[in-house]
Amino acid sequence: MQPQRFEHAILLHTSHSGMEFPRYYRAMTKRNARPVFMVHDLIPLTHAEYCRPGIADIHRTRIHTALRLAKGLIANSHDTRHALEDEAQRAGLALPPCVVAHLAPGVSAYPSRPAPIGTPYFVMLGTIEPRKNHWFLLHVWRELVEKYGDAAPKLVIIGRRGWECENVIDMLERCESIRNVVIEEANCTDDQLHAWLQHARALLFPSFAEGYGMPLVEALSSQIPVIASNLGVFHEIAGDVPDYLDPLDGPGWIARITAYTEANSVERSEQLQRVKRFRQPTWDAHFSEVDRFIAALD
Question: Secretion signal: which residues (predicted)?
Answer without folding.
Answer: none
